[in-house]
């Protein structure tokens, strides 16, 4: 197969060789019908039958994997049993007694085994040709058993490390609570664990063939619950639609199989509310329910003195009414961010409402239930709050959406020498309804001066104080209710951008309206080549990619009801802006969300602009200074 594929035009020659605004030009060397027939004959004759070498290899590896996994589980159980009766050395001896031939599978996960490495390299080359030639799409499907074999071989190390990483991320918020109360916080920008050789090879292979893998999963979603489950531990590879399909499959499997459930799946939960007091009435009716009851229930809503029968429309309206009321300033639960007043952050002064923590728990349950029922909410939060939901650390760049001027001050501190020009201590002043308090960022922080040497620590701590410590009770209240309904480890397969799309839905973007309400600055105008390429790229994007571009530049995927002419910035209506970036054309585009501003470098071709723009909006899910 590889020999025949080598006769095809190289992948780089099969792409979109279009000019400035012209139509796509086909590859220089067209794929002949004879070659296509030979590829089809080889794949169907030698790779499709159940007796093919790749199918036999997969069955053998899955058998070894099953046996080794079973032995490992029995050893762990035996160790736990014996550890209560014998010392640690004796328990270690038990582990060493495992049959070495069964545990040999783990050594194969290094990815550079002399028998497997050439096979994966050849498979990769075949997949590369498959991606480049749409007429060879069937080859990837035929090679599926070989790709599954790759996943099985890498399962021991990648799977175990992935579960460990997920567990660590899941406890990030809890550990932050204890550290905030009694010790130093871990830096939000602290480095991750260095991947092993096997992990690095796995990540490189899956990311290189991301397009093919997502197509296979899209055509057969069950793969993510089977041999392709490793991709869940590296969700960076999966497209949002595949993540969402896996999420709901796992969510409903968990609902139907959970033990100890007191009610059958899909039981009716009657909710009777008055429209004027829909938030309080719903809060009181949910207070006596367990998270499992709420998750599994089919909600039937009845508004007092209204004749509507809930066949889905009434409950949808109820969800939207709650989404509006949770941001009602009378409850003091959330406050709008500075960037356009369309995204919200927990209010650090919500304690003015005596039941605020129970309300936050209720809001978490409602948003979780809306996700379970796939109800779209008109509820948009700041990027830092989405990070808290996902158990990830905040960064000083998240401050831009909350307080743009303060963010610029922190940025200036980091970028300049502050010797003899900055006189602050490791403490901050807060105003609680006229009462001024001084909060130390470290023990006796009011006596410790900020210097050039410790300024990075100061920025980190003041960011943690503003974005986490000041609202940690509110965050924990929300997460308590949210995790009553949505499993903590399951939601973490998404990033912040995707979580917003999961809660608030995919926007319907009118590209013509968007273009007609865009301003150009710094030398760009509507006829500039880069601007023409930009809008051509936007039109070629799918719905998800357009939503992520909006998130990247404006901080949210929300489109105003009145259209882009009413797009909000931190000082009111602020149209979408594209500024010329005179720096190197090798830089990625950057954004300033408070001003709905995109800084676009002077790229020299459409392909370069499109690829860099996609890279920025797809990979830059953390922070706003991606360059």
Give an overview of the whole structure.
This protein has 627 residues and is of the alpha/beta class. It has helices at 2-6, 33-47, 53-83, 88-96, 100-108, 117-132, 137-142, 144-170, 172-182, 197-208, 210-219, 230-233, 240-257, 278-287, 291-296, 313-325, 356-372, 383-390, 404-415, 455-467, 472-485, 488-491, 496-504, 511-516, 529-540, 543-554, 606-619; strands spanning 268-273, 298-303, 334-336, 344-346, 427-432, 435-440, 518-521, 568-569, 572-573, 576-581, 590-592, 597-601. A hairpin with a 2-residue loop joins strand 5 and strand 6 (435-440). Helix 18 (383-390) crosses helix 23. It starts with a helix and ends in an 8-residue tail after the last helix. Residues 12-29, 94-99, 166-192, 257-264 and 621-627 have low confidence and may be disordered.
Measured distance between first and last alpha carbons: 41 Å
Q: Nearest-angstrom radius of gyration?
A: 27 Å
Number of DSSP E strands: 12
- Major sheet characteristics: 4 strands, mixed
Output the structural class.
alpha/beta
| Order of neighbouring strands in the sheet with most strands | 7-10-12-11
- As a percent range, the share of helical residues equals 40-55%
Number of helices: 27
Give the DSSP E fraction (strand runs of 2 or more residues): 5-15%
Shape: globular
Mean pLDDT: 79
* Poorly predicted spans: 12-29, 94-99, 166-192, 257-264, 621-627
């Amino acid at each position: 197969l590889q020999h025949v594929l080598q006769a095809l035009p190289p992948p780089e020659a099969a792409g979109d060789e279009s000019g400035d605004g012209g139509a796509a030009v086909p590859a220089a060397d067209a794929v002949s019908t004879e070659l296509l027939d030979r590829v089809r004959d080889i794949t169907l004759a030698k790779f499709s039958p159940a007796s093919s070498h790749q199918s036999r290899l997969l069955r053998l590896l899955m058998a070894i994997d099953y046996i080794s996994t079973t032995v490992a589980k029995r050893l762990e159980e035996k160790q736990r049993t014996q550890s209560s009766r014998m010392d640690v050395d004796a328990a270690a001896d038990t582990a060493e007694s495992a049959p070495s031939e069964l545990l040999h599978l783990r050594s194969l996960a290094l990815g550079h085994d002399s028998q497997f490495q050439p096979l994966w390299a050849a498979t990769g080359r075949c997949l590369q040709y498959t991606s480049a030639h749409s007429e060879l799409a069937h080859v990837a499907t035929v090679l599926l058993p070989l790709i599954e074999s790759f996943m099985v071989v890498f399962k021991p190390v990648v799977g175990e490390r992935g579960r460990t990483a997920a567990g660590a991320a899941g406890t990030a918020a809890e550990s932050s609570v204890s550290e905030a109360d009694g010790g130093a916080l871990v830096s939000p920008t602290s480095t991750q664990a260095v991947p092993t050789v096997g992990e690095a090879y796995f990540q490189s292979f899956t990311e290189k063939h991301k397009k093919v893998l997502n197509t296979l999963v899209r055509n057969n979603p069950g793969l993510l619950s089977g041999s392709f489950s490793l991709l869940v531990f590296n969700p960076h590879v999966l497209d949002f639609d595949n993540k969402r399909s896996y999420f709901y499959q796992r969510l409903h499997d968990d609902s139907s199989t959970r033990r100890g459930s007191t009610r059958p799946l899909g039981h009716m939960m009657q909710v009777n509310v008055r429209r004027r007091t829909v938030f309080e009435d719903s809060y009181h009716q949910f207070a006596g329910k367990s998270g499992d009851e709420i998750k599994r229930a089919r909600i039937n809503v009845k508004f007092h003195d209204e004749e509507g029968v809930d066949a889905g429309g009434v409950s949808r309206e109820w969800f939207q009414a709650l989404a509006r009321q949770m941001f009602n300033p009378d409850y003091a639960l959330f406050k709008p961010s500075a960037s356009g007043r369309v995204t919200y952050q927990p209010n650090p002064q919500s304690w003015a409402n005596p039941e605020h923590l129970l309300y936050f728990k209720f809001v978490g349950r409602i948003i979780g239930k809306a996700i379970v029922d796939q109800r779209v909410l008109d509820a948009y939060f700041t990027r830092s709050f989405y990070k808290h939901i996902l158990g990830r650390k905040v960064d000083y760049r998240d401050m831009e959406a909350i307080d743009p001027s303060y963010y610029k001050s922190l940025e200036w501190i980091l970028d300049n020498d502050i010797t003899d020009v900055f006189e602050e201590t490791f403490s901050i002043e807060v105003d609680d309804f006229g009462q001024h308090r001084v909060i130390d960022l470290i023990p006796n922080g009011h006596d410790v001066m900020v210097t050039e040497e410790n300024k990075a620590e100061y920025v980190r701590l003041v960011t943690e104080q503003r974005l986490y410590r000041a609202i940690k009770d509110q965050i924990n209240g929300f997460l308590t209710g949210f995790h009553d309904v949505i499993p903590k480890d399951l939601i973490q397969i998404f990033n912040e951008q995707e979580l917003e799309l999961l809660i608030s839905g995919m926007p319907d973007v009118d590209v013509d309206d968007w273009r007609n309400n865009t301003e150009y600055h710094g030398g760009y105008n509507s006829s500039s080549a880069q601007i023409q390429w930009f809008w051509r790229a936007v039109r070629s994007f799918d719905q998800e990619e357009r939503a992520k571009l909006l998130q990247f530049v404006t901080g949210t995927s929300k489109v105003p009801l009145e259209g882009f002419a009413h797009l909000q910035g931190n000082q009111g209506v602020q149209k979408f802006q594209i500024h010329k970036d005179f720096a190197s054309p090798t830089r990625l585009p950057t954004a300033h969300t408070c001003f709905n501003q995109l800084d676009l470098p002077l790229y020299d071709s459409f392909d370069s602009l499109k690829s860099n723009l996609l890279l920025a909006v797809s990979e830059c899910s953390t922070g706003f200074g991606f360059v």
